[in-house]
TrEMBL record:
Described purpose of this protein according to its UniProt entry: Catalyzes the N-acylation of UDP-3-O-acylglucosamine using 3-hydroxyacyl-ACP as the acyl donor. Is involved in the biosynthesis of lipid A, a phosphorylated glycolipid that anchors the lipopolysaccharide to the outer membrane of the cell.
Domain UDP-3-O-[3-hydroxymyristoyl] glucosamine N-acyltransferase non-repeat region: 33-101
Subunit architecture: Homotrimer.
Transmembrane segments: none
Any one Gene Ontology BP term: lipid A biosynthetic process
UniProt-listed InterPro entries: Hexapep, Hexapep_transf_CS, LpxD, Trimer_LpxA-like_sf, UDP_GlcNAc_AcTrfase_non-rep
Organism: Sinorhizobium saheli
Reaction it catalyzes: a UDP-3-O-[(3R)-3-hydroxyacyl]-alpha-D-glucosamine + a (3R)-hydroxyacyl-[ACP] = a UDP-2-N,3-O-bis[(3R)-3-hydroxyacyl]-alpha-D-glucosamine + holo-[ACP] + H(+)
Record pathway: Bacterial outer membrane biogenesis; LPS lipid A biosynthesis
Name of this chain's protein: UDP-3-O-acylglucosamine N-acyltransferase
Active-site residues annotated for this sequence: 258 (proton acceptor)
GO annotation, cellular component aspect: membrane
Enzyme Commission number(s) from the entry: 2.3.1.191
Family label: Belongs to the transferase hexapeptide repeat family. LpxD subfamily.
Length: 354
């Protein structure tokens, strides 16, 4: 890949210092003074790069690897060429994530769209809004009446912060995002085009066969260190609040309905839809394109496989998959039985043709 000017290399971190920062053991201490500038995949890593390996199945990529170091665990360290120093880590994936954050700090949040700092002349900030020192508002962004924004927060071009919204400190509100009827904590990242706090989908049967809109007067509460992906939508509550717990990470193109409560440190992957009034515990992982029924509970630490349909409660710590979602062992057994039956039908069909 040609030089990437969007994310230029770091000025350099000593390999020995990097090992200390990652809590890793450097296999060759004589290489401690090597300068590390960037991360790269194994197959095209060059001097100055650090990469990582999680499995022996990628060993062929080492043939073209010229990295200054490879992060891995002791189980696969022996397959790394002796010319490449190894950073031994108990959790290589985590160590590599930390290395990436050190070497490419500017890639950890959406970047600035203009070179201006402070309140841009082309921004509109209502006179009644309260912005702490150090807030940045880019051109065409709107901050509504009575809104409050904490220091270190950046509101990008075209974003809309509605009346009365509260946003904490050191947040990034990306281009084209809208935040209405919401309270946002500290260190929150909201990616481009996200829609937060619009009214939810609620209707009652009308007297003549149509539908009457149910008023939505709740809020959205987003706690600290949450990240919300591009074009994700989070509806405000009907009368209670929609809540996103501390440290939860939400991918692009996720729909979260009104009154949903999501716990702390959850991971929700793209194209998940969560219907209204669902309760999701702490540490829950939901795979891509899963659908979650309304008014159910998913317990702490549960895992939902991709493309599942969750129709009823999921106990804490369980792994569910399929449509309807059921315990993973049952789902896998059903899949195996269906495959076996299909094979038997094919054999019978082949026998008749003969």
């Amino acid at each position: 890949m040609e030089q990437n000017w969007f994310f230029p290399p770091h000025e350099g971190i000593r390999l020995g210092d990097l090992a200390d920062r990652l809590g890793a053991e450097l296999s060759d201490v004589s290489a401690a003074d090597r300068a590390i500038h960037a991360v790269a995949p194994v197959y095209r890593a060059k001097p100055g790069d650090v990469c990582y390996m999680l499995s022996r199945k990628n060993r062929d990529e080492l043939e073209t690897c010229q990295a200054s170091a490879i992060i891995c665990d002791k189980a696969i360290a022996s397959i790394v060429p002796h010319t490449i120093p190894v950073l031994l880590a108990a959790k290589p994936h985590t160590a590599f994530a930390l290395a990436g954050a050190l070497l490419h700090e500017n890639a950890m949040r959406p970047s600035y769209n203009t070179s201006e700092r402070g309140i841009a002349p082309g921004a509109f900030v209502d006179p009644t809004a309260r912005l702490e020192a150090g807030v940045e508002v880019e051109p065409t962004a709107v901050v509504g009446a009575g809104a409050e924004v904490g220091s270190g927060t950046r509101i990008a071009a075209g974003a809309v912060i509605g009346p009365g919204v509260r946003i904490g400190r050191d947040c990034t509100i990306s281009a084209g995002a809208s935040i209405l009827c919401a309270l946002v904590g500290n260190n929150v990242i909201i990616h481009p085009g996200a829609r937060i706090g619009q009214d939810g989908f609620g209707y009652a049967p009308g007297p003549r066969g149509g539908m009457i809109k149910i008023v939505q007067v709740g809020r959205v509460i987003i706690q600290d260190h949450v990240e919300i992906g591009a074009n994700t939508t989070i509806d405000r509550g009907t009368m209670d609040d929609t809540v996103i717990g501390e440290g939860t990470k939400i991918d692009n193109l996720v729909q979260i309905g009104h009154n949903v409560r999501i716990g702390r440190y959850c991971g929700i992957v793209s194209q998940v839809g969560i219907a209204g009034s669902t309760r999701i515990g702490d540490g829950v992982m939901i795979g891509g394109n899963a659908g979650v029924n309304g008014h159910i509970s998913i317990g702490d630490g549960a895992q939902i496989a991709a493309m599942s349909g969750v129709a009823s409660d999921v106990p804490a710590g369980e792994r569910y998959g399929g449509i309807p979602a059921r315990p993973m062992k049952d789902f896998l057994r059903d899949i195996a039985e269906m495959a076996m039956r299909a094979s038997e039908r094919q054999k019978k069909k082949g026998g008749k043709d003969e």
